[in-house]
Structures are given as C-alpha cells and as structure tokens.
Design a protein that fits this description.
heterotrimer; A alpha/beta; B mainly alpha; C mainly alpha; A: alpha/beta; Rossmann fold; 2 domains; six-stranded mixed β-sheet; 13 helices; 20% strand; B: mainly alpha; ABC transporter involved in vitamin B12 uptake, BtuC; 14 helices; 0% strand; globular
C-alpha cells in the first residue's frame, strides 16, 4: 500500500534510473571550470566563481530589475531607461521587450553584451538572480536592483564578490550605503530619506505647520521617507504626535484614519500608487477633507494624479524626479519616446536606471574599458565621476552614495507643478554625518519628536 | 531474477553516489550552488512533508514556516546577538521542534482537509509574525549578512565544502526518516494513518503519536532551514510567504508524494524550472501549476487512495461519500 | 413510565469532562469579560470612534461573509475545499472591473463578474473535480494548482498595478448616521446591507426551499439522498455554481472600495479559511458569525494594537480551535 520507504526488493529500478538520467544530464550541462576567484570575506552566503579578469574585447553587463510579480511594470520601465543609456553609445535594440538585449554598443573600445535577469522584489530571489549573473553568466558589472530591500541583500552579496562592480538600479533603502557600505557598490541615485529633502522645512517655515501626523506602510521605504521628513520638520521645531504604521497590503484605511488626532495641522502620507488613491478617497469620506495633506515621493505620482482628482489639490510633496526645462531632460525624454514608443512619460524607475547605467558606462569609458585587477580603474573613475543628468547634477560621497538635487512639488489645478529645487542634498540631509549615522536606523519609533 | 535486479540496483546506487561525490569537482560553482545545494535543502524540506503525508496521512502546509523559523533563529542569534553559528543551530532546531509540537497540538485532532487548512493558516500566521515582530525578525527587510560558521576549520563559503555538508545532512535526513518508518513507531503511525479509531480502540494515543511524528518532521524541516539560511545569507518574510509555502507542496507532489526520493526529484525539477524557464517565458508559474494539476489528475491512487480508504473507514456510512476504486499499482 | 423526570437536585448545568475543558471555559469567560469592559470604556470615552470602528468591522465582516459563504457551502455539501476560492474572488473582481470600465456601467460589471465565475465554477467542477469525487485531498490539491494558474494569468493580463472599480454616484459619498454623530460612507453601508440580505436569502433558501432541503440532506447523508432518487450530480453543480457566483460577486463588490491587486487572492482565501474554521465548516450561519467576529477583531486590533492586529485575528482562530475544534456551529468531525 503505497509504501513510502521505497526500500527492499519492492522498490522499482525505474526511480533510480530516472535519477541517474537526470544526473547525467546535469553533468553534461554543468561541466565548467571551477576556479574560485577573489571571494571577499563579508556579506554572508556562499562564495562562488566570477568573471575572468580582463582580456577579451567584450564587457558583459548584468541588468537586474523586477520583471516578475506585481512590480513588473516598474521593472519594464527600469529596463527601458537603462537601455536608453546604452543606446547613446551606438548600436540598436534587439527588440522592445524588457528581456531583449542590445547589439553593436561600444564603450571604452569594447563591445557591450547585456544579460537581463529578473527578480520579484524579494531579497531571496534577487540574490539568486544576481548569482546567475555573476557566477553563471560571468558578468563584469551589475546594474540593479529595483527595490529597497533587494538592495541591501545585493550589497551584502557584493561584499563577497569584490571583483565585480555593482551599480544601483533604483533601490532607495538608506542602509544600502549609509551604514556598512560595500566598497564595490555604487549608487548614483538618492535614497528614500533624501527624497524628502526640503519638505519638512517647507512645511514648517512656509506653510506654518506645527504638528503633523504621519501615515505610512510598515516597512523600510516608508520608514526612510518619514524619517527624512521628520529630520527636517522636527529640526525646524515641528512636532509629530502620532506616527501611524499600516501593515503591508492593507487596503482598508478606515480604522487608521480614525486614529489621526483631530488637532494636527496636516497629515503626511507616505503611500504610493493605488494605496494613495484608496487612502485619499477614504480620508475624504471619513473626515470630510478637513486636514491638508503632505505627500511622500510616490504619493502624488504622475500616473495616478488624474485618479486622485481634486482630493489632493494643494498637496505639497517632494521627490528626486521632476519635469525640468533643461536640454538634458528634453534629450532623455525624446530618446525614451523614440526607442520605446509605448512607454509613459519619464518616471522614477526609468530615470534612476538611466542615471546609474550611464554613470557606469562613463566610468568604463574613462577607464578605457579596463576591467582587470578587480576593476580598480573603473572604480576610481566611478568614485570621481560627476555629471549633469536629466534630473540635475550628481556626484558621489565617501560611501559611494549620490549627492543630487531634490524637488518640491505642489498640486495646482490637477497638475503636480515644480515648486522649488533643493540643491546638493547629501545622504545625511545636511546634518553632521557622525550624529546622523549614530542615531538608530529609521524604523517605527525612530525618529521621534512628539 | 531478484539477484539480477538487485545487482542492477546496487550498480545504479554506486553510480549515483559516485556522481554526487564528484559533482562539485567538475561542475561550475553556479551549478553546485544555485542548482545543487538548493535542491538538497529544498528536498529536505519536501522530505518532511512527504514523510507526514505518506506515513502519517497528514498533508502539512506548515513545513515552510517551520524551516523558516529555524532559519530565523539562526539568523537572529548569529547576526543580532553575535552567537557562534554552531551554538545557534541546536537552539534553532529546538525552537522549530517546539513550534512544530505547538502546531501539532492545535491541529492534530483534525485530519485530512481540516488539517491542511489549519496548517496553511498557521503558516500564514508565521509569515505575518515574521513581518510584524521587528525586534526579532527585522520585519519586511529581514535579517541580512548571515555567515555560515567554519566547519572543522574549513570555510562553508566554499561551494565544495558546503555541498558536502548539505549532502551529508540530506543523506542523514533520508536515512533517519527511513529508519523511523521501519521502526515500531513507524508501524504505529501507519496504523494511525490507516485507521485512527482502530488504533485508539487498541489503546494507542493517536493524538500523541501524531504530535511526535509532527515534531520529528519539524526537526527534519529545521535542518533544511538552517542550510537554507546559510545558503541565502539572509532570511526575510518573503522566504516563508504563501508562494514559498505552496512551493514545497508543489515540489512534493511533482516529485511523488508517496516516495521519499521524490523530495529531491521534485526539488531538482522545480529548481531547474525556476532558474531556466525565465529564459523562455515569464509565465513559468502557469507552467508549474499546469504540471501540478496534470500530475494530480494522472497519477495513480498513491497517498490519496490510501487516505480515502482510511477516511472512509472512519466515517463508516455516515457521510455516504462514494468510495473511489482502489487502484493497484507498483509499490502499493 | 419511560420518561422519568430528573429530580431537580440532580440536574447540573455543566459537568466538566477534563482539565482542558475547564481551562478553556475559564479562558473564554475571561475573554468575554475583557471584551465587555473594553466596550463599556470605549463607548463612554469616544463613542464616535468606537461606533465607526465597529461599523468598519461589521462591513469587513460582511465582505468576508460573502466570500466565505460560498466556500462553506461547497465544502459542506461536497467536501471540496476550494483552495482557488481566493483566485475566484480576484478574477471575478478583475472581470467586473474590465466590463464596468469599458461600458461605464458598474451594475453590468457586477453581473459580469458574478456570472463569469459561476460559469468557471461549473466548468471546474465538471471537468476537474467530478472525476476525483470523494478524494478530498486530491481535489484540494488540484484547486491549489488551479489557484496558481489563475493568479499567474491574472497577473499576465491585468498586471501588477491595483485596479479600482468606480462606484455609481448613487452609492458613493457618505451619510450622517443618527448614532453618535458618525459619518459613514454610503457604499460600505450598502455592502453591509447587501450581505445581510444575501445572508437572510441564503438562510431562507437552505431552510425552506426544496433545493435547500435537498442540499442540507445531502450534507448529512449523500448516499441516502441519491438512493431517494435525487440527481446528486445536478445538486453538486448547482451548489458549486452558487458558491462561485457568491465569491465572484464579492470580488466585484469588494474591489469597488478595496482595490484588486495580485496578492488579494491569497488574503481572501486565508480569511475564508479563518472565518470558516471559526464558524464551523458547512454552516452558513456559522460563516456569518465567524465573519462578524473576524471583521470586528481585525478592525479593533488595527486601532488598538496596530502592529500585531493580524496576529490577534489568528489568535481568535486558535482560541476557537482550542475550545471547539469543529468551529462554533460546526458539526463534530
């Protein structure tokens, strides 16, 4: 009766044969060299092979974004931005799909080969995908990942593979570079807290808010956003009597709205996309819109502003991406539309990937395509790189984290209009670095100023 | 005839063992790590499910959460408390087994579908616990930077060393499960699986036996969990969410729910699929789902048949559910 | 003298069978006492907030009831645990969204979602489940496979961005209630009323209609019903269709004030399971009570213990299991 031991004479040879056949197939497929090169000593997980050093006329670049699961549309946009950067060096697309490669692109005298991998916004899968890039496809550099928590996992993986250079995609978790950075992880985009630069000061000084309640989802990106906002707001004398954290995946905000103190001056909402839609709708229903809103970086996003309607009229928010009247921006927007006619207007993900990829390519150019000796020349070039991107100038600090502009917006007549530019925002938001780093990481309780 | 069969089988076994030992020396590290080692620890997790399903007649969806709990304990103790890895392991195993016992106490009185649902609810509960209880689990971001400790002076970061550790643990788990099945305890479990009222009438404490079986399965799963967290170098709620919970079930079914070896066959199949199907289609989940359905429709009675018979005998004529034809096949 | 009156002195209210039972009863009594004093305190200090949250809980419970009633009906009669129930919710909602988006008519969307999933339900039952009849486990596992496929196809077609149905203007906005100066959204009141009406309708159907009586008889003893000449297969198909229609409908109704997105299928499957475990498998009334309890616990916990609110909902389930494993109104297994 279905004896699961499979032992004794009753066990058919067939199972064994099947396993042997599989093993043989694996052996054929898996044959490859197994020299362990340059494994660093930190970061956790198992080491493994990586690319051969220097030599050939091809540079392999890995592109990692979330092409699976709910974040897939963002991954698609991200890949488009990255490819626009590549196509500026000649060559053409092999197809307009996110996984299609490029051909004929030359940087620093070498041909670029693009390997596309995908994750689903969970750290495990992101690390698996990176492993495939580094250990199986043997790429020389990786651009990615997309989401914040993947970023921290990739940073730790990078520490183990110091011979490969990692450049960020769009992940914005603060601790990817602020604390315990990897010497081979470069982030040319700003983090979630930097995306709030300017808002706290504006709320306190220009709008005269004295008390604000915050609402955000209960994970790291909103923590960073609220933390960034509060660093400035509290620093300017404001108080935050209530921080409301909504469990991930909540769609019904009714009971959370009921907790907002009636006497605050405004509500800061760090929700994005359709969560913002739901929240503002329910907020209006339950409070009759008696309180003004302040928006996080993805709250009053171009994609949903129509759906938000007049619920967010007058809302002020901040973020790293704005429609600028500069030649760089116009050129990028034009190129994006030309290569990917189906794409939407420039947004956070494609712009971040564009900036990061282009930075990598400029570094490769400057280093003459030299990826030998643990990419020393490349990294030197990257560390000292500074250029004007479609969204303003960028340069790196000592942790290889971007210092760039941030923008304030106000929703006027149904449109998110540029209100102000905050220049040269560094990762510590102007606060003394030692003081900033020594405070606990942003989370539910920190910072606190009630 | 038997001797020739036996000789062929022995030869097959020798070849397999030789292959497994030689594998890390000729395969690239990607294959050893991303395919091989992952298959080994996933297979251990699936083994715990297959053991419970086949021997005890309980299909548990809580195995992922249990192996995740072991992983979390190791991660928390080594990263956040600075413990040595080898000290953390027994604590992790103990915690996982305790958790398994607790789950069993809630659910062991139910059987069949109720049990499936309860264990699913428990698994998702543990996911949310991992998500919300930041002081221990660091919430959504999880715990990063988990280092495997050195094994007799050898670094477990070396793929070959880790491969042999994983292989040894997998082999030990396999032999342990076979040992339990063949033991008197295993026979009692089969009796419970076939007809719990009869065993109760004979004086056996059915619930206690189920709880012990569950605890043992939890121990097996926990070993896989420790390997998993060292393999990944980190653990997050995403490692034990609904998708991963169902994954272990899919692996067990695809591999063959009534064969212990099926655990690794299924794990290998799914690992290969998830690593390479990406190149062909973004819809590999649909592919896996269809294969899963196909196997369920076409496979012989197997565990389901056994279970139906057992359930039918328990209920007697009360529910009047029609008895499925008993399908005789190889291995029954 | 067959029936003898028991002397009053010997009649006891409750004779404890074991230590566990004593502990469980004490635990339940303590929980009830806690809840009562909590309610009393909150009502006196902030009635508006309390009533609002209570209404939130009941409305959420109403939605869960709509989803779980189909689940429990299907299980009660056919012993099929439809693990694709959450996927049906999501797909029904998406179809409703698609139709209402294209036609501009919300009611058409509701109809579309309901009918489409009812049809899907019949299809699944006839093609997949009928040949496995009686093999509960295999049926459940197959529905898991179905759930995986449906979820992936939904992701492929509608993508990852959440979708909202637009509620007709007659149902939107908020109403001022007479109680405690509460302002409450009209649509949520609509959902609450609708679920109550459907619940009563189901109850009447099950209790007083011929179909209902046949269903209940089938739940009790299927072979006997078949022996009495009733075509059990048709009853099965009808019940599965009814259950599927209910969940398809709730997908559209729920998606109109809580968005539809990948992952919602898992959430609603999970809450169906909890509601049915708490209320008792196979009992529609149990599903109603279970749903109300789960909804209330969820919302109150969200306010007073936000970080661990989900855990409290599960705690409710564990408590019920410890005291009464078959659920509040379930039949002993």
């Amino acid at each position: 009766m279905g004896n699961p031991t499979g032992g004794g004479a009753r066990r058919p040879v067939s199972v064994l044969l099947a396993m042997l056949a599989l093993a043989a197939a694996m052996a054929l497929a898996a044959c490859g060299s197994s020299d362990d090169s340059g494994s660093g000593d930190e970061g956790g997980g198992i080491g493994g092979d990586s690319a051969e050093q220097g030599g050939s006329g091809t540079i392999k670049l890995g592109l990692l974004s979330t092409l699976e699961g709910p974040f897939a549309p963002f991954g698609e946009a991200a890949n488009q931005g990255a490819k626009v950067a590549l196509l500026e060096h000649g060559g053409k697309l092999e197809g307009t799909g996110p996984r299609d490669g490029i051909s004929g692109v030359k940087v620093g005298g070498k041909t670029i080969e693009l390997v596309v991998e995908s994750s689903d916004a969970t750290p495990d899968v992101a690390v698996d995908a990176t492993r495939r890039l580094v250990e199986q496809s043997k790429v020389d550099a990786v651009v990615g990942p997309l989401s914040g928590d993947e970023g921290i996992a990739i940073k730790n993986y990078a520490k183990q593979h110091t011979d490969v250079t990692f450049v960020n995609g769009s992940s914005g978790a603060q601790n990817t570079t602020l604390r315990d950075p990897a010497p081979n992880f470069f982030r040319f985009s700003t983090d979630g807290a930097q995306w709030m630069a300017g808002l706290g000061k504006y709320a306190s000084e220009e709008l005269g808010y004295k008390t604000v309640a915050t609402v955000g989802e209960d994970y790291s990106f909103p923590y960073d956003q609220v933390g960034g906002f509060m660093t400035e707001f509290c620093g300017a004398g404001g108080k935050v009597p209530r921080k409301i954290w909504v469990p991930l995946g909540t769609k019904d905000y009714a009971s959370f709205i009921a907790q907002i103190p009636k006497d605050v001056d405004a509500v800061y909402v760090a929700l994005g996309g359709t969560d913002a839609l739901n929240f503002t709708k329910q907020f209006d229903e339950f409070t009759g819109r008696k309180l003004p809103l302040l928006g996080g970086s993805i709250t009053v996003d171009g994609a949903i502003i129509k759906g938000l309607g007049d619920r967010v009229e007058g809302t002020v928010s901040a973020g790293p991406v704005a429609v600028l009247d500069t030649p760089e921006y116009k050129e990028y927007a034009g190129a994006l539309k030309k290569h990917f006619p189906e794409s939407g207007p420039p947004g956070l993900f494609d712009l971040s990937y564009y900036v990061n990829m282009k930075s990598l390519l400029q570094g490769l150019d400057k280093a003459g395509g030299n990826v030998s000796g643990d990419d020393a020349k490349l990294r030197e070039a990257l560390s000292s790189l500074s250029w004007t991107t479609p969204i303003g100038p960028v340069k790196l600090d000592e942790n290889r984290q971007a210092i760039a502009n941030n923008y304030l917006f106000k929703v006027t007549n149904g449109e998110s209009r540029l209100l102000d530019t905050v220049e040269n925002v560094n990762q510590t938001l102007g606060v003394d670095r030692e003081k900033y780093v020594s405070q606990p990481s942003f989370d539910r309780k920190n910072p606190s100023c009630s | 005839m038997t001797t020739r069969l036996g000789n062929r089988r022995t030869l097959g076994l020798v070849v397999l063992v030789a292959f497994l030992i030689a594998f890390p020396f000729f395969a690239s590290s990607f294959w050893v790590v991303s395919i091989g080692i992952k298959t080994l620890w996933l297979g251990i997790a699936a083994l715990s499910l297959i053991f419970l399903a086949g021997t005890v007649g309980m299909v548990s969806l809580a195995q992922t959460a249990i192996y995740g709990s072991a992983g979390y304990v190791v991660a928390h103790l080594t990263v956040m408390q600075g413990w040595n890895g080898w000290l953390a392991v027994p604590v992790a195993l103990a915690v996982a087994v305790t958790l398994a016992i607790f789950v069993a106490l809630i659910s062991a009185r139910s059987s069949g579908i109720y049990f499936l649902m309860l264990t699913l609810a428990v698994a998702v509960f543990l996911y949310f616990f991992a998500l919300q209880y930041r002081p221990f689990t660091q919430g959504f971001s999880g715990i990063n930077g988990v280092h495997a400790p050195d094994l007799f002076g050898l670094s477990l970061r070396d793929p070959t060393t880790f491969w042999f550790l994983a292989l040894a643990v997998a082999l030990a788990a396999y032999l342990a499960v076979r040992g339990v099945i063949a033991s008197p305890f295993g026979l009692t479990l089969k009796g419970v699986r076939d007809s719990a009222p009869r065993m109760a009438a004979l004086g056996y404490n059915v619930t206690a036996h189920r709880v012990v079986a569950f605890a043992f399965a939890g121990l097996v799963a926990a070993c896989g969990g420790v390997l998993a967290v060292w393999y990944n170098g980190q653990i997050a709620p995403g490692s034990i969410d609904l998708t991963r919970t169902i994954d272990v079930l899919v692996i067990a079914v695809i591999g063959g729910l009534y064969r212990l070896e099926g655990a690794w066959v299924g794990a290998l199949a799914v690992t290969l699929l998830t690593n390479f199907a990406n190149d062909y289609t973004a819809r590999f989940n649909t592919v896996i789902g269809l294969i899963f359905i196909g196997i369920l429709l076409l496979s012989p009675g197997g565990i389901a048949g056994i279970w139906e018979n057992a359930a039918g005998r328990i209920r007697g004529g009360r529910s009047g559910r029609p008895q499925p034809p008993v399908i005789e096949g190889a291995g029954r | 003298m067959a029936a003898q009156a028991i002397p009053a002195a010997r009649r006891r209210l409750w004779r404890p069978q074991s230590a566990t039972e004593v502990v469980s009863v004490i635990a339940v009594a303590a929980a009830v006492a806690f809840v009562l004093q909590f309610v009393a305190r909150r009502l006196s200090s902030d009635a508006t907030q309390f009533v609002t949250i209570a209404l939130n809980g009941l409305t959420l419970g109403a939605l869960y009831f709509l989803v779980a009633s189909g689940f429990t009906l299907i299980f009660g009669l056919m012993r099929v645990t439809n693990m694709a129930h959450g996927a049906f919710y999501l797909l029904g909602g998406y179809i409703g969204f698609e139709v209402s988006d294209r036609t501009g008519n919300w009611y058409l969307g509701v109809l579309a979602g309901t009918v489409a999933i009812a049809a899907l339900g019949i299809g699944v039952q006839q093609l997949l489940l009928r040949r496995l009849q009686g093999q509960d486990l295999r049926e459940a596992l197959i529905t898991i496979g179905l759930a995986i496929v449906i979820a992936d196809q939904c992701l492929a077609y509608w993508g990852g961005s959440p979708r909202d149905l637009i509620v007709p203007t007659g149902l939107s906005g908020a109403k001022e209630l007479q109680v405690a100066e509460v302002i409450y959204p009209t649509y949520r009141l609509f959902v609450l009323g609708l679920a109550t009406a459907l619940g009563v309708g189901l109850w009447v159907l099950l209790r007083h209609s011929k179909l209902g009586i046949t269903i209940r008889a089938g739940v009790d003893d299927r072979r006997m019903v078949a022996a009495l000449g009733v075509n059990v297969q048709i009853i099965f198909a009808v019940v599965f269709a009814l259950g599927a229609a209910l969940v398809g409908f709730s997908g559209v109704a729920g998606g109109s004030y809580l968005s539809l997105a990948p992952g919602e299928d898992g959430r609603y499957l999970l809450f169906s399971l909890i509601v049915v475990i708490v209320g008792g498998m196979g009992s529609v009334t149990g599903a109603a009570i279970g749903a109300a309890l789960v909804g209330l616990v969820d919302q109150f916990a969200a306010v007073y213990v936000p970080t661990y609110s989900v855990l409290l909902t599960f705690g409710l389930m564990v408590l019920v299991l410890a005291v009464r494993p078959q659920g509040l109104l379930g039949r002993p297994a």
